[in-house]
Amino acid sequence: MAHPSQLGFQDAASPIMEELLHFHDHALMAVFLISTLVLYIITTMMTTKLTNTNAMDAQEIEMVWTIMPAIILIVIALPSLRILYLMDEISDPHLTIKAIGHQWYWSYEFTNYEDLVFDSYMLPTQSLTPGQFRLLEVDNRMVVPMESPIRMLISAEDVLHSWAVPSMGVKTDAIPGRLNQTTFIASRPGVFYGQCSEICGANHSFMPIVVEAAPLNHFQKWSSSMLEA
User: Fold this and answer.
1) In terms of DSSP bridges, do strands 142-145 and 208-214 run parallel, antiparallel, or are they unpaired?
2) Measured by CB atoms within 10 angstroms of the end CB, which terminus of the chain is less buried, N or C?
3) Distance from C-alpha of 99 to C-alpha of 153, rounded to nearest angstrom
């Protein structure tokens, strides 16, 4: 989860998020280099005493400031396109979960288990136990097996919502009448928090998302207990 005065992204909990973090660092270095060059040129132009009012054109400079931005854009675009294709790749998922946004809670349907359907409401402050997070904890977490490809089918019942878990690198719009899909792999066990990321009404900020990644045997015990309940 995010913490106070955090400047960067959350720690990656999936391979896609690791790729996004690497791309962010890669693009940020290009921004720093460009900013440094522009600042140097501005400073030089403001401090120099040399002037030349007779220069009408400079083909060499024109070529440099046309070719250099093109190279920079290519260097940034190629890794970006690679990650876009990786994010759209869904092959042989081990588990498919349908998340449906409501005003203002989420409901989950595990399509591999016909009867495993539950709603996930935010816990009110007075119901929290020590160690739980205000405005982020829910009564029923979405538990998934770690190191397994998970396919999410995301929709909404009433208005626009958005199912987002930053540490997983997942953010997909939930649109009424439309089924969007995304995928993720939890690379380590843990509890990962997210929130609806599309303004959906008065209680938009009170419909959190909690994904708990656990070893396969723990997931099987949880699913059995949920089916028996």
Assistant:
1) parallel
2) C
3) 6
Q: Where are the domains of the chain?
A: 15-49+56-88, 95-228
What pTM, to 2 d.p., does this model score?
0.83
CB atoms within 10 A of CB 154: 23
CA distance 1 to 132: 12
**Of 123, 135, 120, 138, whose CA–CA distance to 191 is shortest?**
138
Cα 77 to Cα 41: distance, rounded to the nearest angstrom: 26
Per-residue pLDDT tens, the chain, 229 aa: give them: 788 888 888 889 999 999 999 999 999 999 999 999 999 988 988 887 777 666 667 788 888 889 999 999 999 999 999 999 988 888 888 999 999 999 999 999 998 887 899 999 999 999 899 888 999 999 999 999 999 999 999 999 999 999 999 999 999 999 999 999 999 999 999 999 999 999 999 999 999 999 999 999 999 999 998 888 6
Residue 2, token pair as written in the block: 């995010």
In CATH terms, 95-228 corresponds, of 2.40.50.320, 3.40.630.10, 2.60.40.10, 2.60.40.420, to 2.60.40.420
Q: Give the C-alpha separation, 204 to 202, whole Å.
A: 6
Q: For residues 129-139, b (16+ Cβ closer than 10 Å) or e, as one string?
A: eeeeeeebbbe
